[in-house]
Amino acid sequence: MVSDGVDEDSRLRTSCAQGAEWRYGRARSRQGPRRTRRRGAGRAGAGDRRERGLGRRPAMAGGLRGGAPASVRALLLRRGHGGLRAALGREPGPAHPGEVGRGAYADAPLATRLRDGELVSSSSQPSLMAMMLAELRVRDGDRVLEIGAGTGYNAALLAHRLGDDRVTTVDLEPEITEAARRHLAAAGYHPVVVTGDGARGVPERAPFDRIIATCTLASVPAAWLAQCRPGARILSPLATGLIALTVRDARHAEGRFLHTPAYFVPLRGADRPDEGPADLDALPRPARESELFRFLLVLSRGRLEPREAYALWEREGQPRRERYGITVSGDREWAWLDDPEGPCAWPLR
After folding, report:
1. Which superfamily does CATH assign the domain made up of 8-29+46-274 to?
2. How far is residue 244's CA from residue 132's CA, in Å, rounded to a whole number?
3. What class of enzyme is it (predicted)?
4. Which of 26, 83, 164, 332 is most buried, by the most CB atoms less than 10 A from its CB?
5. pTM of the entire structure?
6. CA nearest 288: which of 279, 280, 300, 277?
7. Mind listing the pLDDT tens digit for each residue in 233-288?
8. What pLDDT, in 10s, does the model give residues 287-301?
9. Which residues face 169 on adjacent strands?
10. Cα 208 to the chain's mean position, in Å?
11. What span, in angstroms and rounded, lies between the C-alpha atoms of 207 and 204?
């Protein structure tokens, strides 16, 4: 699991295959089939989705419905399981017919593309993806940019909620975007799939109301803010957490981390900070073994020596992620604890 605590949001961290329903950022168990009719639901293609076992498209007033998400993931992974092949060291085929299906329906991340032994693309843990989509707080009519196309699964969920024309997904690798485009079309979805550097966004598709990244950032790209409408929301992995930013204008944004840890493939094409292993041997075992303490070390980017970080961590009561935040102001960007203008702050660029 990816949770370091149990609270209301933990209910969001359930497998998509278990029939949860996400509406306006909250989860509730599905109480049987809903019969909401969406305008245009009878158009060509809706029946094709049902025949493939992908479920109904949601009512426009709602969020992501159970039924479709896990089945879409299964279809996309069955059509592109190069990472599973690499992990197994063989082709998952007739002798092992259930491996792709079991992986698709499991609440676990799956490697989908390796290069020279390095993971370059994956299908994230479904419960974490569900929580991120709920925290993205999409509304009817929103235009969404996804950074990191992967298999196309996340884009399929967003297109299922908002419609194809309001979803754009971008990835640096042509083979990833070409495969994602094929997978999405096979599943009956046609969002805009772009090959390019995610750090630069997709200006020709701007402005966006929401940006969601499925790759870890070193800092928030300035291009993203410039392509957002005022009041837009950006949700992205950073350090080992998830930052939720509200965009004020093209040069200013601010927000706090969510409570959950998150580990993603780094954004390719962007500069990566040198995060060499810190020597923690001199620290007490609770600090060495604390995921929250390591979050502070990664976030502060080596500007705090381990002993300094430990002293701060203890003095501030072993703060959880929600007390940390990030501010972007013009050319400056910094992480902070409790207060953007307080004494505990660390530059990110």
Report:
1. Vaccinia Virus protein VP39 (3.40.50.150)
2. 10
3. transferase
4. 83
5. 0.71
6. 280
7. 999 999 999 999 999 999 999 999 999 999 888 887 655 555 545 678 889 998 99
8. 999 999 999 999 998
9. 146, 193
10. 17
11. 9
